[in-house]
Amino acid sequence: MSEDNSPKTSLSELGEFGLIDHLTRFVELYQPSTLKGIGDDAAIIDHENFATVVTTDMLVEGVHFDLAYMPLKHLGYKAVMVNLSDIYAMNAEATQLTVSIAASNRFPVEALEELYAGITLAAKTYNVDVIGGDTTSSTSGLVISITALGKAEAEKITKRDGAQPNDLLVVTGDIGAAYMGLQVLEREKQVFKVNPNAQPDLEPYSYLVERQLKPEARKDISSLLAALEVQPTSMIDISDGLSSEIIHLCKNSKVGANLFEEKIPLDPAVISVCEEFNIDSTTIALNGGEDYELLFTVDQKDFDKIKGNPNFTIIGHMTEEREGMHLVTRGNQKIPMKAQGWNTFGDTNDE
Ligand code: ADP
Ligand code: MG
């Protein structure tokens, strides 16, 4: 949040083609399936006998991110994670990305370089190829749209519609931390507005802030499930909060669900920051967002393969559709679940 006095090059100095060349000069290719990457009218991909999965996500300044506390390098990294998470949620392997950027001349070349450094770091870490994109100007603000491609054997691909009554409901990792990280950053932003010399001490919140600013997509889960010989019946990634994702699985699969409050995996840092902010941690887990963990269902017969694994927590089970979707509280009360995930259009009822 400090003044940056490093040299600034205006976007117009490089021109569109110069800018594309400049930004993509460190792009490397890792995937044998990329026959042609950047530099022609279109990229060429050969996934041979595998099915191809494709997903796109757009991030808009002021709607999805705030550059007051989001460093551009982290933004680039996160923009890739958001997309890879969707590929992994199909039980597929991510292979390629296209990156489209619209930026106003408020952003110097150096800013877009930072953004691109995050994108290429993510691509390298996750072994995916940046194979193209588009670069254009905008009258205000920054927009990043990424498309990710992946591959999987057709019969392994896991959709939202395969859950059956009595299937176990399983989540990876822990949830709620990214949302609380955002609350901490928002609070520091307000403090900074009042006193620009205040140096925030984010140390006690490092896990939360990291989950918000540098999320990691669950690349490991597909191969882990394959090693355990578990084929999930349905899967989704957690971008909008646990309850809206459970509702998506239920509605698509035409089943109900019971989610047990006491089973929801929370990091101790989430529990303590919720006490500090005087917020109920279950509410955060259900309605927060941006966890980028995976939520899936498995047949009961796979219970032994899942139960002892530290990557997984069994949080409930599916039921007949007519039984509905419920949170079973610690006090054994059944509360109907409602979707309260993020809604870009500002409408709280997003069903
Ligand atoms: P066209 O006029 O055919 O759309 P462009 O001049 O927009 O081509 O892009 C030239 C090449 O650079 C293409 O391969 C395109 O995919 C790639 N490209 C453009 N912008 C980006 C970007 N932001 N990141 C990665 N590749 C890009
Ligand atoms: Mg173009």
Structure described in brief:
This protein is α+β, with helices and mostly antiparallel strands and about 350 residues long. It folds into two domains: about 10-155, 60s Ribosomal Protein L30, Chain: A; about 170-335, Phosphoribosyl-aminoimidazole Synthetase, Chain A, domain 2. Helix content is about 35%, strand content about 25%.
List keywords for this structure.
7-stranded mixed beta sheet; 2 domains; single chain; 60s Ribosomal Protein L30, Chain: A; Phosphoribosyl-aminoimidazole Synthetase, Chain A, domain 2; binds adenosine-5'-diphosphate; 351 residues; alpha+beta; disordered C terminus; 4-stranded mixed beta sheet; 10 helices; binds magnesium ion
Overview of the structural elements:
It is built from 10 helices and 13 strands. It is an alpha+beta fold and 351 residues long. It has 2 domains: 11-156, PurM-like, N-terminal domain (60s Ribosomal Protein L30, Chain: A, 2-Layer Sandwich); 168-336, Phosphoribosyl-aminoimidazole Synthetase, Chain A, domain 2, CATH 3.90.650.10. The strands form 3 sheets. It has a 7-stranded mixed sheet with strand order 8-10-7-11-9-12-13, sandwiched between helices. The longest helix is centred in the middle third of the chain and has 18 residues, at 177-194. The structure holds adenosine-5'-diphosphate and magnesium ion (MG). Adenosine-5'-diphosphate binds at residues 20, 23-24, 38-41, 99, 101, 130, 132-135.
